[in-house]
Amino acid sequence: MALIECPECKKKVSDTAEACPNCGYPINPQPKNNNFTELGKVHQSKVFGAVVLILGIAFIILSIIKLGLPKAFLTICIAAFFIAVGLLNLIGYYVITCPYCNSKTSLLRIQKTHKCNTCKKISVVDGDHLRTTN
Prior knowledge:
By secondary structure, this protein is an alpha+beta fold. The chain has helices at 46-67, 73-91, and strands spanning 3-5, 12-14, 36-38, 93-97, 104-108, 113-115, 122-126, 129-132. The strands form three sheets. A four-stranded antiparallel sheet has the order 3-8-7-6, with no helix packed on it. The radius of gyration is 25 Å and the shape is elongated. The model has no long low-confidence stretch (mean pLDDT 87).
């Protein structure tokens, strides 16, 4: 344990202090103990997912048969959205909170890692928790 100079007020402070007792400048801020978040419950609807998936595939097949491949592009894009929603509900997903920045997003049940869209940091699934990687 040594005395160092506070960068803010220039007074002597212990190098183990969390903050300067004179001005409050952070010297050794303690890391937060929140290095994980709960995954919560799985959002899954197998019946809805299967129905929407089948409708999307049928929509693609019928639009190609009726319109031909070049003209069916827009309907195929719409059907792809239906297929994605169907697969999402079949697989299941979590609504999660990023353990770094606390932003809300979703995580597929089969994913083992997650890259946050907000802070761009990676966290890993560990049992029922989403943990930081550092």
